[in-house]
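By convention, the token line describes the chain's fold. To illustrate:
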Amino acid sequence: MRASAVFSCAILLIACAKKEQKAADTTAAAAPAATPAPAPSPAPAATLSLADLAGKWIGPARPENSDSVLVIATITATADTTGWTITLPKRPPLPFHVSVSGDSLLFSNGPYESVLRKGVQVTNTGVLHKQGDKLVGINVAHYKGAGADSVRRIRMELTKQP
């Protein structure tokens, strides 16, 4: 009886092993999953033209995290990199140095006495992007000798004048 019990268990094990092997074989024979098509690459950004920016641009400069207007700036733009100026309240026009990189207008100006901090020299750098009839972007003001408050980020939104 013991021999028949061992024989029955052996047959049962063999039968179970064959079923598991068949299941494994069936899975291996399944067709590989199709790989998704690569996403189309985004269209290249349009190159900004200084000639398209020529004219007068006016608008507020605001702190990066507030809607309070700090100053109203006027930028006079030419069709090339020479002759650009920025005019701030109660100030003569200041040179405004520009260059183009793809769809970005990079700028810098200064040092000059800050409109916001009397007696403190400031130098500005930033980037603007054309959005319809506006130039929008961030100006980073670097104040000389201002300690911990030596840098301020300012949002600009200038509208082209007719």
Notes: The CA atoms of residues 64 and 154 lie 5 Å apart. The first helix runs from residue 2 to 29. The chain is about 20% helix and 40% strand.
